Amino acid sequence: MTDTSPREPQAPDDLRTLTAAYMSAVRARLADVEDAVARERAARLFTDQLLPEVAKAVKDVRTAAVGELRQGRTLKEVSGLIGLSVPRVDQLLKGK
Prior knowledge:
The chain is mostly helical. 76% of the residues lie in helices and 0% in strands. It is elongated and about 55 Å long.
């Protein structure tokens, strides 16, 4: 069994920065919509359709990463590596 790759402490900060910039751009774009009905519909599209699609895509990445960590390891070992309970690791592996 090989150790995991070195931690990437910059990754969470980069993701926070990207997310903040993305949300700022979304808010600015929504603010540019002059018609209140159109602005509400655009905001609803974002929250009801686009955000769930992004969440699903990111969840798939997370599930794949946990699956990668599972190779040659027990659920308990994976649990210790990522700081989650064994049942939660099992759920992630099942795509829940």
